Amino acid sequence: VHFLPELKFHATVGADYAKGDGTIYVPGYAAQAFNKDESLSGSDYKYGPQKNENRLLTLYANYAKYFDELKSNVDLTAGYDYQYWKSTTPLYYTKSGAGTTLSTVKASDYRHVMLSYYGRLNYSFDGMYLLTATVRRDASSRFSKDTRWGTFPSVALGWTLTEEPWLKDNKVLSNLKLRASYGVTGQQEGIGNYNYLPVYTSSVTGAEALINGQYIKTYRPEAYVENLKWETTSSWNFGVDFGFLKGRLTGAVDFYTRKTKDLLASVPTAAGTNFSKTILTNVGNVDSKGVEVSLNATPIQTKDWEWNLSYNFTWQNMKVKNLSLTKGGNQTNVKVGPSIDAYQFQVLTEGYEPYMFYVYHQLYDRETGKPIEGAYADLNKDGEINEADLYRYHSPAPKYIMGLSTSLRYKQLTLGMSFRANIGNYVYNGMAMNAGAWETVSYNNSQLNNLNASFLKTGFKTRQYLSDYYVENASFLKLDNLSLSYNVGKISKWASLTVSAMVQNVFTITGYSGADPEVPNGMDNSFYPRPRTYSLSLGLQF
Fold first, then answer.
1. What's the half-sphere exposure (Cβ side, CA atoms, 13 Å) at 51?
2. 342-400: per-residue pLDDT in tens?
3. Strand locations in 126-212, DSSP E?
4. Rounded Cα gap, residues 204 and 102, in angstroms
5. Which residue has the higher pLDDT, 71 or 333?
6. Residues 233, 261: contact at Cβ < 8 Å?
7. Alpha helical stretches, state H, 72-149
8. Measured between alpha carbons, how far is 58 from 83 in angstroms, rounded to an integer?
9. What phi, psi does 439 have (nearest 5°)?
10. Distances (CA, A) of 255 to 128, 232, 239, 314, 494
11. Cα(first)–Cα(last) distance of the chain, in Å?
12. Quick count: other Cβ atoms within 10 Å of Cβ 359?
């Protein structure tokens, strides 16, 4: 703004549009689509168009000025964000030997809008005393009008001790800063776009109702929670930043506490209260605390050689404080999380870690060491094996998280590596359970499936859904990135060149028997491991 140069206005407008369609043809003699009845063999159909559309509008004003007479720096920002997502898939028709039929893939039209108003103040006095205050007002179309808006404030204070006169000229300590902050954040991801609305879904082919000799399409109600609201987390953080030897060794130590209110999770519904066995709703509160440590060092720094190291460590502990679903009742365990064949494997229990596995204790043959099919411990000693014998067994959340990055430069050649480790995280190997029993080889006369290798160890004839045999320690060490780059330097008056090669997902060391030990929700039902990626790049700078 010309008449007030400290004031700036910023605008960003963006739009993405994607469309995809295709044709699938499988000849009748192919094993994939073979049928004893030749008229039913093969398939030939088109799908799509599938469309995705995203829009973004960001507007904000920023005022920044240093006041010499007050020794103060002021930075003010106020803004507005609008984001829109849309994804549509139409119904399509399938052609086969039996004729043209409507696909069993239902049409979809998913839309989601986020609105945000926000403000931020950064203030510093004499470079020593720091204040940051923010407030956000967010609205999500995933909630009803009564619960759509959420207000999320935060405030942070900092004191840079090394700017104080009595410490400013210290030759060993190059940085020392104390920090404290409090903030509230909101969560609404992964809950679906219409979970608060009474939505009806049209029946697909084969699910019509027979009325007066005619098949009539029906509409079925979907499950919904009218008063669904934001999951909110309030956090306290206390930390110290430090640096020695002119920044050759730096680091930070943080202690934090977090209180999550109105946790969003999928839980079983009481019979006759909704239109699904499970429903996503606000279920209760979870408290967590932890310590984070980060260290950065440059052990070697010369003209030809430079070695940099970066290490971080996190310890965390979480507990369920209360379950809002159980007020006035005696229910203490609420089953949550992903399901396999209507079985849920995780639980929320007051006083315990969230999402612990809720399973039976498997019994084993003393001579062979193999698990005994259908044999579980009678933990409550009542002479029966039923749900009362389920117990909480480990958590998918790691106790310790660590990361190590290093880069070594010799003249223009640089080698870089990034390691990451989780310790104490457990995973339910759903793929081993679901495909590791003999019954999964074939469900009918014309079907043949692969068996999971776990069958060779168990010999199970039927799937043992809730056996703790499949809860495995999934601690791991990963080399995420390995890179090598060479700075060629100037190749002309106007340009310099850098050549780089990189490998991602280099290796994983773990005792877990599944495809990948890193499963965010603790339930592994994946077929394939993460890909290893190789890349080569040339960088020109003008």
1. 11
2. 899 999 998 999 999 999 999 999 999 999 999 999 999 999 999 999 999 999 999 99
3. 129-140, 149-160, 173-187, 200-202, 209-211
4. 8
5. 71
6. yes
7. none
8. 9
9. -65, -20
10. 22, 20, 6, 10, 49
11. 31
12. 25
Estimate to the nearest angstrom the gap between the alpha carbon of 170 and the chain centroid: 44
Q: CB count, 10 Å around CB of 261?
A: 19
How far is 266 from 338, CA to CA, in rounded Å?
8
Q: Name residue 23's amino acid.
A: T
At 411-439, the pLDDT tens digits run 999 999 999 999 999 999 999 999 999 99
Cβ atoms within 10 Å of 20's Cβ, excluding its own: 11
Domain boundaries, the chain: 1-113, 114-194+228-541
Residue type, 296: N
Q: 8 or 192, which is more confident?
A: 8
Which residue from 314, 319, 335, 480 is spatially nearest to 398, judged by alpha carbons?
314
- Residue type present at position 167: L
- The string of DSSP letters for 263-320 reads -EEEEEPPTTSSSSSEEEEE-EEEEEEEEEEEEEEEEEE-SSEEEEEEEEEEEEEEEE
Rounded to the nearest 10 degrees, how much is the dihedral formed by the CA atoms of 98, 104, 107, 111?
Answer: -160
The full DSSP string for 27-79 is: -TTSGGG--SSGGG--EEEEEEEEEEEEEEEEEEEEEEEEEGGGTEEEEEEEE
Which of 143, 153, 288 minimizes the C-alpha distance to 228? 143
CB atoms within 10 A of CB 127: 11
Q: Are 97 and 41 in contact (CB under 8 A)?
A: yes
Q: What is the pTM of this model?
A: 0.80
Query: DSSP state, 412?
Result: T
Which of 291, 295, 227 is CA-nearest to residue 262? 227
Angle at 353 between CA 347 and CA 356, to 5 degrees: 35
